[in-house]
Amino acid sequence: MTRGYQPDWDFDLARGERQELLVEGILSRIRNGAEVEVKSDFYLNADLFMEVSDRRAGRDHYRDTGFRTSRSGLYVLNKPGLNVLHIYQTGDLRRLEAAALLGPLLDGGMRGDCPTRGYRRTASQIDAALAKLARGTDPLFDQDAS
């Protein structure tokens, strides 16, 4: 410990307990049958790709897909081969999109004969957007950010 450092144990304890409850809640939801959607779309540089629309062969318009239409409460972005999971509440991703915090909508390339659109972001960028969305609504978060 650094000499002269006086940790704020009450704050550290509250933050730790809150994070434990978050993980406990996620695991409990899964154990109780909550649907989980797992996607593994990513770029070689480890950016995640969150598809939100596609255009099937023979159609002249894009239709919503991905977290826009998912019925699952949890949306997991997986980086295959790295054993890394990024778990988000589907509603949080929808709120980020509604608040225009996911960046520009990009053409994602082709899935078979189907062009896709979505957001290309790193996990850190998604986390920063969630933090921006949460700022001012959570007293413990606001203390964390300072």
End-to-end Cα distance, whole Å, is 21 Å
Mean pLDDT: 80
Main β-sheet description: 4 strands, antiparallel
Strand order of the biggest β-sheet = 3-2-7-6
Cα shape: elongated
Low-confidence blocks of residues: 140-146
**Percentage of residues assigned to helices:** 25-40%
Number of discrete helical segments: 4
Radius of gyration: 18 Å
What is the element string, with H for helices and E for strands?
HEEEEEHEEHH
Q: Which structural class should the secondary elements be placed in?
A: alpha+beta
**Percent of residues in beta strands:** 25-35%
Q: Oligomeric status of the shown chains?
A: single chain
Count of domain modules: 1
Task: Please report the total strand number as a whole number.
Answer: 7
Brief summary of the model shown:
The chain is an alpha+beta fold. It has 4 helices and 7 strands, in the order H-E-E-E-E-E-H-E-E-H-H.
Give a verbal description of the structure.
The protein is an alpha+beta fold. The chain has one domain (37-140). The chain contains four helices and seven strands; from the N terminus they run H-E-E-E-E-E-H-E-E-H-H. It has helices at residues 9-31, 90-98, 123-134, 139-145; strands at residues 36-39, 48-54, 63-64, 74-79, 84-89, 106-111, 114-121. It has a four-stranded antiparallel β-sheet with strand order 3-2-7-6. A hairpin with an 8-residue loop joins strand 2 (48-54) and strand 3. The protein is elongated and about 60 Å long.
